[in-house]
Amino acid sequence: MMKKKLLIHSFPFLLLFISCTKNKNESQVAPVASDTLSTGWKKIQINDSAGFLDVFFINNTGFAAGENIFKSSDGGESWSKLASPSGLASTPLFNLSMGSTMNALFITPTQLVVTHNGGASFTTKALPDPAVTDVFFIDSIVAYAIGHSVWKTIDAGDNWIKLNDIAPSNGWNSLFFTNELTGWLLKKTGAYKTINGGIDWQRVNTDTINLDQAGAIFFLNSDTGYFSNNLSIEKTVNGGTSWNKVFACTTNTYHDIHFVSSNIGYITDGPRIFKTADGGNTWTKEVALGSISNSLIELHFTDANHGWACGAKGAILKFNQ
Asked: Per the record, GO CC terms (predicted)?
């Protein structure tokens, strides 16, 4: 997602960051002749030229967010545009997480957007942090957010407490928890692990990997996990003591990661989705969209048989096997 070193000190810089990071680098990818979708995948085109920056589902209920918020109650077959949160019309919402079908959190360049009724209404919450970029629910009401600091809510986003001022850095910050105590975060200063619910963090060994353009982070357990930078997917099997490149990306952009088991996982790479069935040793192309303007950004799976991806030009992909 990161193509440049960007300083995020203010709203204009963050808008520039979003524009550069969650879009394609057209000079890096040759156009594909037509959409190629492996068995189980289908493309659902939504009438929203602004496109989407994140998608998230719980069972058949999900949201897709960009400049607008859309909701699906039938597993992504159909989508309804929701009323924009007050004062945030055309403001990009570039990450989201759901604690339940009712509780969801969205991140904008300046504040969090909260719903407790499945998107029927929204409230906003400003945190005293200039660079919040990711949020992660670990159950229906407990969630963490990461920016310059680590934040926690125990009421689904209405109130937040600061846990740690960990290594402030301008740029993209990603967050992932395997349970309420054990979590990981990724930022340009490195990858970090907590075992006490975000109060303390220990930096793991990423000294030989360029994280100026950090991406996504995903862990299966305390030992095995993956993260992306702008040009590769890295894997650890020893809790971050060492990392090995398992995929060389073809696009200089943001690459999302989601595993549904220890062996089966998916990544985005520009207008393509790749799948591994052996823990990242080999990868096969599952999706190739015919236009680089349909570059895919985020993906999310609820289990091995149900997944979604989103991207530019209102493209939603659904996997149902």
From this structure: photosystem II
Domains belonging to the chain, first-starting first, are 47-260 (2.120.10.30)
Where do runs of H (alpha helix) occur along 166-227? none
Tokens 């509780």 found at: 103
* Beta-strand runs (E) in 7-149: 36-37, 41-45, 52-58, 61-66, 69-72, 80-81, 95-98, 104-107, 112-115, 123-125, 134-137, 143-146
Sheet strands (E) in 147-256: 150-153, 161-164, 174-177, 183-187, 190-194, 202-203, 217-219, 225-228, 232-236, 244-248
Q: What angle do CA 96, 101, 103 make, to 5 degrees?
A: 55
- Tell me: the pLDDT tens digits for 174-224? 999 999 999 999 999 999 999 999 999 999 999 888 898 889 999 999 999
Check: pTM over 0.85? Answer yes or no: yes
CA distance 115 to 85: 10
Phi, psi of 66 (to 5 degrees): -155, -120
What are the respective helix, strand and coil percentages of the chain, to the nearest 5? 5, 40, 55
Q: What Rg value do the Cα atoms of the chain yield, rounded?
A: 18
Contact between residue 288 and residue 35 where contact means Cβ atoms under 8 Å apart: yes
Of the candidates 55, 73, 72, the one whose C-alpha atom is nearest the C-alpha of residue 64 is: 55
Chain CA centroid to CA 84, Å: 21
Residue where the block lists tokens 């203010």: 10
> Residue 37 CB: number of other CB atoms within 10 A?
16
The residue type found at 249 is C
> Side by side, which strands form the sheet with 225-228?
217-219, 225-228, 232-236, 244-248
Q: Using an 8 Å Cβ cutoff, are 81 and 44 in contact?
A: no
